[in-house]
Amino acid sequence: MNKQELFENIKRKESFLCVGLDTDIQKIPSHLLKEEDPVFAFNKAIIDATAPYCIAYKPNLAFYESMGVKGWLAFEKTIQYLNKNYPDQFIIADAKRGDIGNTSAMYARTFFEEMQLDALTVAPYMGEDSVTPFLGYENKWVILLALTSNKGSHDFQLTTDTEGERLFEKVLRKSQEWGNDQNMMYVVGATQGHMFEDIRKIVPNHFLLVPGIGAQGGSLEEVCQYGMNSTCGLIVNSSRAIIYADSTESFAVVAGEKAREVQQQMAVQLKKL
Ligand SMILES: O=c1ccn([C@@H]2O[C@H](COP(=O)(O)O)[C@@H](O)[C@H]2O)c(=O)[nH]1
Question: Which positions carry the signal peptide feature in this UniProt record (predicted)?
Fold first, then answer.
């Protein structure tokens, strides 16, 4: 999916919500455990209920890899289900990969050729040759970690060099030599609020993937106030607050209602464009 198609979807659905498929077998409703593949059954129900209100899904690989082969199969089935039934959805593998060049090339093959995903989160720490192998795919996206939502973001990302540049700013600035706003996005946590203003000074046109509303307490209004640009420029993720909003047989209906609530707040923000 290219940037224009993504923006068209956002306008059409009046939403820039990404539903996080962080599916934990220990948290899914007990009646699903009798299914042959409980994780896929859960994902399928969540997707069917939330798809009208979102433009993206973000399975986090940790939740699937923790189950070994069964988890990978559930992940693969989920991607196939989305591609077949909801081809307009932008699918992000949150895997935070990145390694020496030839190894990154294998990760790229896994997620962009074998698994048919639109985007992959990548860690910038190993530099240019660890990121560029992901950038050679048409209409596929690298989502580089810039300023994350967790407390530990202060340990490295917010530290300054001798010229006063913060590490996350260096990541944003330097990585523009490798990619552009048609193949690269950045992760910025919703918990970082007004920092979006500084980020937009360096990357005014790029899309930002924003986790941290919902369970982590970030403010959607603040993110929009400081982070929105003329093509929206935001994909805002919520995982636990939507998918685990209810643990009964009504879990999918309630997840759909939660997604709709967020979508309605987003529609208000999009009217300001
Ligand atoms: O800075 C980051 C980067 C990634 N994440 C991931 O996003 C979701 C958030 O889940 P919630 O349940 O909505 O809190 C999860 O997969 C994280 O690993 C992040 O939170 N912050």
Answer: none
